[in-house]
Amino acid sequence: MTVQSDSERGTRTERRSRLLGWRSVLLAVLAALVVWGLIRAFIIDVYYIPSGSMEPLFQPGDRIAVSRMAFASRLVQRGDVVVFDGRGSFAPLESGRGWLGDAAQGIGEWLGVVPNETVYVKRVVGVAGDHVQCCTTDGRLTVNGTPLDEPYLYPGDAPSSMKFDVVVPAGRLWLLGDHRSDSVDSRSLLGAPGGGLIRTDRVIGEPVSILWPLDRFGAVNTTKGHQ
Questions:
Q1: Same domain, 3 and 54
Q2: Are strands 141-143 and 146-147 parallel, antiparallel or unpaired?
Q3: 112/87 same-domain check
Q4: Which of 4, 35, 77, 154 could cysteine-pair with 179, CB 3.0–4.6 Å?
Q5: Per the structure, how many domains does the chain have?
Q6: Is residue 227's pLDDT more than 50?
Q7: How far apart are CA 150 and CA 152, in angstroms?
């Protein structure tokens, strides 16, 4: 029979304690990731802004928090800023998954540190039944014959340099960027299948705050810009 010394028993007990400690840490991390994943899937998500198409509201490199619950109790309205899945409408304008590769790109998108190749943020200018036109003699957009006031436009930008005349069908939205001269939006897809209109069920949520960079941290006022 082998007899263990007190020091050997102490060493084994210490190793067992360390192993249990690492297991506890790992389980805690996994639980935190599961909870964070559920929050991201159903309540608040995070997205990276890759371009200046929504300036001055959002700038390239901004990380924004998006409420997935924003439209749970109300319909998307004209003037809302929405984050949406562009697959089948906007996404064909882009190619590839990015230089990081599929797996790394997906992780980066989930963490909000690289742009999502199929997710976009734009402003709703027309909802179902709206007749949206560009432009009046003074250069303004009209919706159902009424000229739009657009205080959110990028300073110096015209409402649109492209003429259009669209009636929005049921279940669709007509979307434009606030920086009209630097935005790929519904105007750019007039000749494509779907005519630049996205389905309302493709809307993911509404931006509620800027998370990064820290000097821009805070809530957003989608009517006027970042507060």
A1: no
A2: antiparallel
A3: yes
A4: 154
A5: 2
A6: no
A7: 5
The string of DSSP letters for 106-121 reads: HHHHHHTSS--TTEEE
Per-residue pLDDT reduced to its tens digit, 91-114: 754 444 544 456 555 565 555 555
CATH code at position 136: 2.10.109.10
Are 14 and 66 found together in one domain? Answer: no
Residue 115, C-beta contacts closer than 8 angstroms, at least 6 positions apart? 47, 48, 49, 50, 98, 109
Q: What is the pTM of this model?
A: 0.79
Residues 99 and 156 in one domain: yes
- Catalytic residue positions, numbered: 53, 122
Greater model confidence, 191 or 92: 191
Residue 128 CB coordination number (10 Å): 16
Could you tell me if 189 and 114 lie in one domain?
yes
Rg, C-alpha atoms of the chain:
24
Phi, psi of 210 (to 5 degrees): -100, 130
- SS3 state of residue 210: strand
Length of the chain equals 227
